[in-house]
Design a protein that fits this description.
The protein is of the alpha+beta class and about 200 residues long. It is built from 5 helices and 10 strands; from the N terminus they run ααββββαβββααβββ.
Length: about 200
């Protein structure tokens, strides 16, 4: 039986992929994976996710083990849902790999750069709506352990933070359901201060 692959892409391959990553759709993005994380290290791939303002993704660990809390101790809604660009995911992880899937609930072919989706932007995900938060999603020590030192350095290289290669963090602002058949659609584009700049009501 073939052994699972430990991918750990070298920096040269990651850098060579930059033009492809930067040409991802800015809107109307197809979804590659929907994933739930009931607890640490657990991944459940599903064909739909329920998204709620109060619970984020019901059954997810956000309510019990958030890595960011409000001053009163409640889970910070700014990190309810993360979206990872599929072109980045494909470089570091494939089904059957030894390392686990990154764990982002939504992986989609989307340009998640700050220029395209500044804080305050609204994304329609099926019947739900997500608001891009100002919390920056960095590559953490788990990312380095799972996908290698080069993949970790690559995320945070000079000029790369603005590209948000590790994806975006969002709050649910309208309850709904997103399915694998849906596409992520930009409803409003914010600015870096989190304000809407589209003129939409």
């Amino acid at each position: 039986m073939p052994q699972p692959i430990k991918r750990h892409p070298p920096l040269r391959d990651l850098m060579a992929a930059m033009p492809h990553i930067c040409s991802a759709p800015r809107d109307d993005a197809p979804i590659r994976y929907l994933c739930q994380r009931p607890d640490f290290g657990q991944r459940v791939f599903v064909d739909r996710l329920h998204l709620t303002v109060d619970q984020g993704i019901p059954g997810e660990r956000w309510l019990r083990h958030p890595w960011l809390r409000l001053p009163d101790g409640r889970p910070d809604p700014a990190i309810q849902v993360s979206i990872l660009p599929s072109r980045v995911c494909d470089l570091v992880w494939q089904p059957g790999d030894a390392a686990p899937h990154p764990g982002d609930p939504i992986v989609a072919d989307l340009d998640t750069s700050l220029d395209n989706l500044p804080p305050g932007s609204l994304i329609e995900a099926g019947s739900a709506v997500l608001q891009v938060s100002a919390v920056f999603n960095t590559a953490c020590v788990k990312w380095r352990s799972r996908y290698g030192e080069d993949a970790y350095r690559w995320i945070n290289m000079e000029d790369h933070p603005r590209l948000r290669l590790r994806g975006i963090l969002c709050a649910v602002v309208r309850d709904g359901v997103v399915t694998m058949a849906d596409r992520l659609k930009l409803l409003r584009r914010g600015d870096e201060a989190g304000r809407d700049i589209t003129g939409a009501d």
